[in-house]
Fold this sequence. Notes:
Blueprint: H1 7-20, E1 25-30, E2 46-50, E3 56-61, E4 65-72, E5 75-82, E6 86-91, E7 97-99, H2 106-114, H3 123-128
Amino acid sequence: MSEQSAKPYLVRAICEWCADNGLTPYLAVKVNAQTRVPAAFVKNGEIVLNVSRAATRKLTIDNEWIQFTARFNGQSQEVAVPMASVAGIFAKETGYGFAFTVSQDPVASLASATQPEATQPEAGEAERKPRSRPGHLQVIK
């Protein structure tokens, strides 16, 4: 007998905990071919969804899927997220929650494996790129 993943149970627990404490549960999702979300809101292959009771209708979280109806720019849309695509669940106000590893989409993995490798930039191109600044946060002891 194979052991079931704890992910759906943790997602349901954080959603319930957020509701009990007046917090807003946000779901971080890695978008793939099986994920049904509004494409206009996907950035870098990811989307963050508000899954609070006030923001969704008919929210169901089972062991395989998270499904609900929500309004995006005033239009009601059906959303379906496979549990394997959930990258995290957290409270918007506090940031408390869980991050999960997302298994690679077999179709995306196959496509990336068959594409030619990117070429190295020439020396002149690397010099023209802006340098990133160090972060502004400091460790205080």
